[in-house]
Amino acid sequence: MYLYLHALIKTHGYFETLVNSDLALFNRLDVSMENYLQTPFEIRSQIWKELTRSVNDKHHAWRTPVLSTVALDEGVNSRTVVLRGAHESENHLLIYTDARSAKVSELEKNSQAFIVFWSPRLHWQLRVKVNISTHTTGPLVDQLWAKVSQSAAASDYISPSAPGTQLVADFESVNTDNSTEHHFAVLVAQIHEMDWLELSRNGHRRAKIIGNSWDWLTP
Length: 219
Ligand SMILES: Cc1cc2nc3c(=O)[nH]c(=O)nc-3n(C[C@H](O)[C@H](O)[C@H](O)COP(=O)(O)O)c2cc1C
Prior knowledge:
The protein is α+β, with helices and mostly antiparallel strands. It has helices at residues 2-11, 15-29, 40-56, 102-109, 139-148, and strands at residues 66-70, 76-80, 83-87, 92-98, 112-119, 124-135, 184-198, 205-210, 213-217. Strands 1, 2, 3, 4, 5, 6, 7, 8 and 9 form a nine-stranded antiparallel β-sheet that branches. The model is unreliable at 1-34 (pLDDT under 50). Flavin mononucleotide (FMN) is lined by residues 64, 77, 79-82, 95-98, 101-103, 163-164.
């Protein structure tokens, strides 16, 4: 956009007055083209890098996206979750949850969902259309629970009451059970489509990514 603007000014002198104020603004903002990703391949690759980073970086804004599902009454339900896995080779994302939570029942009825990320540092929004399979038993759950059960997060999955259960007085139903039974579940979100939006001083950009195909969209 910046280069395009310069070329336009050089070839069309009369255009200069029209864009002078915009150009001054660009210069004042000190727009850096150094890290400006140009090709769909570069952008797609950076999206996966950021997703992978966010799994291990507690300060990465993409670590806590919003997961939206179709509610049991056919309405919409959304909640914040932690991104636990991002695997480009499998084209999927992983989320951990309690097997008794509403989102699991909702996804078992309708596996379609959206996961939405926003990063103020990157100025990137990513909306990911997914189909989510729920895993409450099996080798994947056993393998991941072996790790999670050793961490502080284990308590999130061994509460005797299901998430959303009304509490009785003095919170007495919480953690009074010494049972080692867990309710750990893994959500595997298979990606169908990504809608990437970049807010930038160089001009906003938006693209729809399906597999290796790419369409630029009006932001
Ligand atoms: C920062 C943050 C991270 C969260 N991470 C998770 C998570 O990884 N898994 C999860 O099931 N709930 C997580 N929650 C709680 C959910 O937002 C939600 O309240 C809970 O899962 C019940 O949702 P549901 O009844 O729609 O299933 C998180 C909440 C916050 C505020």
